[in-house]
Amino acid sequence: EWGLDDFVLKQISQGEIPFLGRIVTEGNKIYKIITKEGLITGEVPGKAIYDAAGTDDFPAVGDWVLLDRLNGQSGNAIILKVLTRKSKLSRKVAGKRFDEQIIATNIDTIFIAMSVNNDFNIRRLERYLTIVWDSMAMPVILLTKIDLSQNIDDKMLEIEEAAPGVDIITTSAVTGEGVQQINKYLGLGKTVAFVGSSGVGKSSIINYLKGEMVMAVKELRNDDKGRHTTTHRQLVPMASGGIIIDTPGMREIQIMDVETSLDKTFTDIETLAKNCKFSNCQHQSEPGCAINEALETGILDQSRWDNYLKMKKEIDYFIRKTDKKAESEYWNKIKKRSKLIKEITSNGRKRSD
Ligand SMILES: Nc1nc2c(ncn2[C@@H]2O[C@H](COP(=O)(O)OP(=O)(O)OP(=O)(O)O)[C@@H](O)[C@H]2O)c(=O)[nH]1
Ligand SMILES: [Zn+2]
């Protein structure tokens, strides 16, 4: 249970199995860990000792760890060892020293959710794919809310072109169409996660998959109140035997969409500009320019307009720069992948000759 697989079992001895746990949550270097006895609290030993053990990363959600005890009666359990991770989903954060934040580990499949309506954006999908490939988990694309679109063939083609060889599942949480296909990736010992923009329907799908099932996890407490039962939704066990990792951090992996955020900040300007006589108005000296008119009458503040222009310029530059970089990185990866696939298939052929 809890996504335990051979990859983990191969790393430990028979005697260590009872002391195995999986990290469910982390906060201030205090961890909630699920063990076969239930949920317990743990911590890493003093930093010096921990470093000496040769592990540079602290435990993260999804990690398999070895503990020194399985009951919390005499204080927090000590995390003796973090087992080797088969995958690691992380996020780059600003700063020089701590530039990697681990979101979750040991995920087999990461579903990249994108809806057929206004969220559909191939550029963004490519960036998510890059993150997932970097993690070593397998990406699967979820085209969501298909009940909102008559024809998804063009969109499917666009996705197939941008993501050759990647599985695509089309779903609707309203009609339930396609959702069961996700279970294929959720068998015993499998761990999955969902990424994608806010509002594309990740929760709806997870809830649909959960159905009526709400799992309670027994927590062993340090105090004398004894056992009590608590539910949590960070590591969600599914009826099919797999685990969904659904943490706040997972939701925070957002691809910055600067263009829309500018529109959101300056809705008044975007609205005004719609009244310009020419749809491609540059708001300089064109006749019938609603922006110029608003500036003259004072409806639009000159400094706000200047600020908008300045930000737009910066953002245009940022988009040009990052898109070029992201695009070339992306295609380099595609090339490497297809080369690898070719090698594997040609090796296979040689052997069978
Ligand atoms: N028509 C339609 N609407 C959907 C579908 N799935 C979700 N929605 C709606 O889309 C909205 C957002 O859905 P959520 O499941 O909360 O989206 P999310 O990706 O979990 O969003 P965050 O929690 O912000 O990350 C809700 O109003 C849902 O009712 C679908 O398949 N079809
Ligand atoms: Zn104008």
User: What proportion of the residues is helical, as a percent range?
Assistant: 25-40%
Name the hetero compounds present.
guanosine-5'-triphosphate, zinc ion
Average pLDDT taken over every residue: 81
State Rg.
25 Å
How many strand elements? 15
Mind summarizing the main beta sheet? Answer: 6 strands, mixed
* Strand residue percentage: 15-25%
- Segments where pLDDT lies below 50 for 5+ residues? 94-98, 212-231
Count of discrete structural domains: 3
Question: How many helices?
Answer: 10
CATH secondary-structure class of the largest domain: Alpha Beta
Task: Give the second-level CATH assignment, the architecture of the largest domain.
Answer: 3-Layer(aba) Sandwich
The order of strands across the largest sheet is 10-9-8-11-15-14
Give the N-to-C terminal Cα separation.
Answer: 41 Å
CATH superfamily of the largest domain: P-loop containing nucleotide triphosphate hydrolases
Q: Write the element-wise H/E pattern from the N-terminal end onward.
A: HEEEHEEEEEHEHEEHEEEEHHHHH
CATH third-level topology of the largest domain: Rossmann fold
Query: Structural class of the secondary structure composition?
Result: alpha/beta
Commentary on this structure:
- The chain has 353 residues and is of the alpha/beta class.
- It has three domains: 6-82, OB fold (Dihydrolipoamide Acetyltransferase, E2P) (Beta Barrel), CATH 2.40.50; 100-252, P-loop containing nucleotide triphosphate hydrolases (Rossmann fold), CATH 3.40.50.300; 258-352, Ribonucleotide Reductase Protein R1, domain 1 (Orthogonal Bundle), CATH 1.10.40.50.
- Helix content is 35%, strand content 22%.
- It contains ten helices and 15 strands.
- The chain has helices at residues 6-9, 47-52, 122-135, 153-162, 202-210, 248-252, 258-265, 267-273, 290-297, 302-352; strands spanning 20-27, 30-35, 38-43, 64-67, 77-82, 88-92, 100-105, 109-115, 138-144, 167-170, 191-196, 217-219, 228-230, 235-237, 243-245.
- The strands form four sheets. Strands 10-9-8-11-15-14 form a six-stranded mixed β-sheet. Strands 1-2-3-5-4 form a five-stranded mixed barrel. It has a two-stranded antiparallel sheet with strand order 6-7.
- β2 (30-35) and β3 (38-43) form a beta hairpin.
- Mean pLDDT is 81; it is low at 94-98 and 212-231.
- The site of zinc ion has 8 residues, from α9.
